[in-house]
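yo

u said u wanted the structure for the complex thing, so here. seqs first:
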Amino acid sequence: MKITCPKNQFLYGVNTVSKAVSNKTTMEILQCILIEAFDDCIKLTANDTELGIETVIQGTILEPGKIALEAKIFSEIIKKIPDNDVYIETDEAGKTNIECEQIQCSIMGRKGDDFSHLPEIEKENKITLSQFDLKEVIRQTIFSVSDNENNKLMTGELLSIENNKLTVTSLDGHRISVRNIELQESYSKMEVIVPGKTLSEVSKILPGEAKDTVNLYLTDKHILFEFGDTKVVSRLLEGKFYNIGQMLSNDYETKLTINKMELLRCLDRSTLFVKESDKKPIILKIENEQMNLMISSQIGSMKDQISISKEGKDIVIGFNPKFLVDALRVIDEEEVTIYLMNSIAPCIIRDETSSYLYLILPINVSNSNV
Amino acid sequence: MKITCPKNQFLYGVNTVSKAVSNKTTMEILQCILIEAFDDCIKLTANDTELGIETVIQGTILEPGKIALEAKIFSEIIKKIPDNDVYIETDEAGKTNIECEQIQCSIMGRKGDDFSHLPEIEKENKITLSQFDLKEVIRQTIFSVSDNENNKLMTGELLSIENNKLTVTSLDGHRISVRNIELQESYSKMEVIVPGKTLSEVSKILPGEAKDTVNLYLTDKHILFEFGDTKVVSRLLEGKFYNIGQMLSNDYETKLTINKMELLRCLDRSTLFVKESDKKPIILKIENEQMNLMISSQIGSMKDQISISKEGKDIVIGFNPKFLVDALRVIDEEEVTIYLMNSIAPCIIRDETSSYLYLILPINVSNSNV
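structre next:
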């Protein structure tokens, strides 16, 4: 193989596909980026067998061929060479010369015959949405994905499409995050569970312009994200996602509206008093037009109060403040509305139209000093 | 104790003295910041017994007293409270209330009777220099301090004053860094060895304005840095520093002048090919008006070339590229001059007046393929 591309093309390509390079494996081929130069197209691919990314870069093919290069050293060389044309040449044995200006680097590559290509995805069930929307919806739900591999389904997010609505749901046993997006077109009902890791890597490489779109293709086993010259293919998590419908009751005994930043800052401060080994709750005491917040642990204690507007009953309820913080951070509205039933039922933070909904389980505070 | 200070005063104070809070100890008092409010002066102190820092902050004393607060939680509370006046009140038992606007925090403090104050330093041997100069000279020499505690003296830097010259020297067995600064006044000859950690912490809290000065006071056992309302006291390292005079010969067989950034970028790239377990040198082959650079390791190989101007013999010599990179990074000149004797003698990078001098030992490359 002999190719020439500007450094910035390699840099873009390597940064894009590197997200699918495995760093937890001992299989050397999974730590590689495959460069293929055929038919006027220079393609970079990485694939850790769960998640695969390929992208096309602009350059000139002087002699077609392919080579698999160890991702770490190749990307570091690309980063550190001058901003100029880069010439790459490989020999029969896999020895790869990377040249830029007067600099000549040489590393050993692999022929790449054992490289696992991205699976071919049937392009039947296609959904189109704006890159901005996809990136946002990932940010707004990814934090409540579980990192506990024992409960595999909780490590993914449910993408469910019906008519012109995409609903994204994640949950970790303590809380549920739901976001709804309106789509331009209407689709038949589809549901897939996408690994959290896939979504988080996709959100990193998506440019995220509102005017640009991303196409999603769904099959039984895979999801394909296609944007620009980049394709991301991921395995799906198999199984039946949790039925959360019955938890999302619209009933409430207390409804309160509160300034988001004020509440967020107070809760964020209160996390200073949470000890890993002894998770004390923050206790919210809602009385008339005021929320009193209290936390007390081995570290110390904090009290604060915030004005609210309230409909319904007074209530005392405790939460892990971090869970409230996570939800409030991804809500863009200036004011949030919180719905409460009683001190042992979950609270729900949602807007009027349920474009977002965050459910958080309380911590029992009946024995606490309040 | 009852005091009120603006948040930003506490923040400044805590950030300043925190550098002397020990985080390697199990002695709880060493993890504390002492707040003392007496005689119209609110003073914050931290002292890990090697290094101590105290600073004065502006505020109002409502009731004099003192308290030692755990540095980590106190500084986090200060960071997270609103930008407004902060009221601190302690009771007999050490319980400390920190109040800001409607927020009330409470943590347990210690009476601070077991807190070790900074030692009193005789203010006899005083040296004055600009904060900028001190900060710069630390940055330009600190990297070649050894982190190996077995060779205690190498973990410090020699500050030697004679007439109107301050010379700062550090070495780690592989290289030597020397910087000379001209002082405004003349002083009698003095030499102290200051722990590298002290200098690195001082450089972090020194504002570093060229127009502002810092006073150094030297005793047998201690050095005191005084600037603004802040005092830093450190133990000195005791012993006789290495005599480096005989190594800093002015003789050379090869003198070459080279563009600093070009050399630095090339060497920096070459570090990609250095493996922790197998430190291959970068080989410099100096021939006529050209430097050829080569490195070859298990990872791969790199060749580069740079134009130079040369006096004297051609030479081939090898170095750990990281050591050259460290020195070149802190030289501000556009061109550097390198003096070489032979392939087993150290190279010296210095300017005409020896305001700086970096000596680096070579790696024997006689067996390498060059």
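The radius of gyration of chain A is 25 Å. Chain A has a mean pLDDT of 95.
cya
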